[in-house]
Amino acid sequence: MFRFLNIVAVAVLVGSAVYAYEIKYSTLYQAEQLAKAKRDLARETDRVAMLKAEWAHIVAPDRIQTLADKYLGGQTLQLTQIVAAGAVPEKAARGDEIASKLSDLGLDAPTKTPSASGAPPTPSKPAAAPKPSAPASAIKPPAKPAAPRQVKAER
């Protein structure tokens, strides 16, 4: 019995030593990771500060004025060039350009497509002389398609 307790005590002692060293090295690893993160953060903070300083230099009014004088011929802004927003003309309204081109070609009638059943299309009558073109505003929008029928499932 005495030897068995000695063996158990030695095993517990070895196990606790292994556990203590594992915790120690895990703590050292975490400390190194924290120090690395702090260095990375300081490096990124320095980069941000450097970029802010470069941006302040790039957008400095004196520098922009010098570049404008050098490359734009030194023209200064006159008070007569400034207007109110309401004085700027509005963008021209655009119509349906495709429909106007089709009506110019005489193709303003809707075309028939073959049915989904696979039946061959029926021959249509030859087209008459082209109609005079109508302005884009006179073209009517296509009619709304009928709502699809609901089919009840049979059981």
TrEMBL record:
Residues 102-155 are annotated as: Disordered. Residues 109-141 have a biased composition (Low complexity). It comes from the Bacteria. This is Cell division protein FtsL.
